[in-house]
Amino acid sequence: MSSWITDSPLVYPALQATHIAGIAMLVGSLVVLELRVWGAARELAVPALARLALTVSLTGFGLAAFSGSLMFAGHASEMISNRAFLIKMGLLTLAGANAGWFHARGGLVKMDHIARAQTALSLGLWFGVIVAGRWIAYR
After folding, report:
1. Which residue from 101, 100, 103, 109 is spatially nearest to 45, judged by alpha carbons?
2. What is the per-residue pLDDT for 3?
3. Distance between CA 40 and CA 100 in Å, rounded?
4. What is the pLDDT of residues 55-88, one digit of tens each?
5. H-type helices in the chain, by residue range?
6. How many helices (DSSP H) and strands (DSSP E) are in the chain?
7. 99 — pLDDT class (breaks 50, 70, 90)
8. Quick one: CA torsion of 95, 101, 106, 110, rounded to 10 degrees?
9. Which residues contact 39 (CB under 8 A, 6 or more apart)?
């Protein structure tokens, strides 16, 4: 399968485009929800906005994970030794742990200073994931 991914003039670019679209869905919807946690757009009900944002985020994550896994399969030996890839995976793990903690402690209900700090951390981690992802090609 790796040769199908790397040898086709269309497959790898299509995977990259899918990966970017997934990241845009994921991070874009998180930004909207996190702005609401910070107090923006108070007229929007948090439960309804959260249902929409989390659905879009999870769909985006699914697209990014699926396409990223296929891209990894095409270059697995290179990726394992690529420091930027390892950093990206570490940041991705931290972002997931932060999201799990945020939801487990009821961050969307509490919307307290801890929830706001977690959303700021979330944005920082996802920005780091994006930067490390772009850095992969140059390492």
Report:
1. 109
2. 81
3. 23
4. 999 999 999 999 999 999 999 999 999 999 999 9
5. 2-7, 11-37, 46-74, 76-80, 83-104, 107-110, 113-135
6. 7, 0
7. very high
8. -70
9. none
